[in-house]
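>> Question from a student workshop board

For tomorrow's exercise we were told to take the sequence and the ligand below, predict the bound structure, and bring the output to class. My setup keeps failing. Could a helper post the expected result so I can at least see what it should look like? The ligand is S-adenosylmethionine.
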Amino acid sequence: MRAKSSTPPGLTSPRPRPGDELELTIDSLAFGGAGVARLDGYVVFVQDGVPGDRVRALVGKSKRAYAEARAIEIVQPSPERIAPAADHPGAPWQVIPYERQLEVKQAQVQDALERIGRLEEFALEPIIPAVERWRYRNKLEYSFGTDRGGRLVCGFHAPGRWDEIVEVSDCLLASESANAARERVVGWCREQGFSAWDRRTGEGLLRNLVVREGRRTGQLVVRLVTAPGTDLDRDGLARAAQPANGVLWSRVPGVAERTGGGETEVIAGADDLEEEIGGMRLRISSEAFFQTNTKMAERLYGLAIEYAGLSGLERVYDLYCGIGTIGLLMAPRAAEVWGLELVPDAIADAISNARLNEVTNARFFAGDVRLALRELVATAGRPDVIVVDPPRAGLSNKVVRRIAEAGPRRIVYVSCNPTTLAPNAAQLVEAGYELRRVRPVDMFPQTPHIECVAELVRV
Ligand SMILES: C[S@@+](CC[C@H](N)C(=O)[O-])C[C@H]1O[C@@H](n2cnc3c(N)ncnc32)[C@H](O)[C@@H]1O
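>> Workshop helper replied:
Here is what the output should look like for this input. Compare the format with yours to find the bug.
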């Protein structure tokens, strides 16, 4: 049964319903990358629409304040559109000229801080463009599926579709050697007669293929993710993945699309790899977070160091520290560094990374920032500088309160989501800090993702 349509205030026609097709003109881009169109003032977010496009769009969701739709035909392309380099769901902004992508990201950071955070009088420094526009990722997670002819394919979900995989042969976000490793393993899976796991029926074996690469060391770790319950030829998989440094097999239960959790077995080599950043050699284990663009991560961390304004005398907290990268890079410029992170494997990496790089003034602890920050202050003493680099959801109210209680002179906030940075920065301003400057860094060309660094100083 279709939902009953209603006419929101100010709208002359009923709001669109799921399944409706609309002809719309896109006038801007929203956070997250969808095009924004208006119907009598009613907002429709359109996947795959860019400003200036006239599109035919299929409505997916319809709410009182807005609808979500997907462009199914470009009726009149925007004069700004450029030809895509590849059919790649992971690069939805490739049809927008790169300079324009940068302008939009810069404007979205400003918009988030001003409109969501109601912040003003901060300096918004110009976005740092990416060094490489393609083949910049050091980790890709592919999904398996079946094409219309019943053939096993490996690639990415089509936009908005959990049941359709767009096959990739040359993934333009990965290096040539990572692509070659994926192709060898997929070829072996076909030889074995394996089928893709089907989320509807729970049948089939193959779920995902994760290829991670130390871009500066050339080391590769390949991880095949399957449903549990079936055995496979381990030696065959190890041979197919050669010359990878590590070959892993994860068996993950459940219907959710995830590559973590479950049971992971090391089939050959090691479960970690090494990468070089800022002159340091870092060990990264398979469950640990690492920035996916090595060269731009170096720029991002360089900016965090600049904003931290260290003189050599400071006690620095690196919260959400992952494998310790930011803290370890700051350690030579600080008196001491204390890192806190939820994932124990990442903390084990941080501790061995300190040893590997002969850093003697950094200590790392596994714990939830929400629960462990007070204890850290009791153990380590009050910080002079706190660096935070939280996941997309940003900092909870409680963490903001704990940080303000700890009372650092300076806070460096590394954010992968300006829409959560903005309210967090506003809360910190409320707690007695001033937002001095913010600078976006383009870690993810051809995509709408935005990374930025903010400096807050106690007043
Ligand atoms: C964006 S990553 C940053 C990692 C690191 N700073 C880096 O640059 O590689 C966020 C990290 O926060 C960790 N994390 C998520 N929730 C957490 C929590 N409640 N307490 C501590 N760490 C958490 C994640 O495991 C992840 O390593």
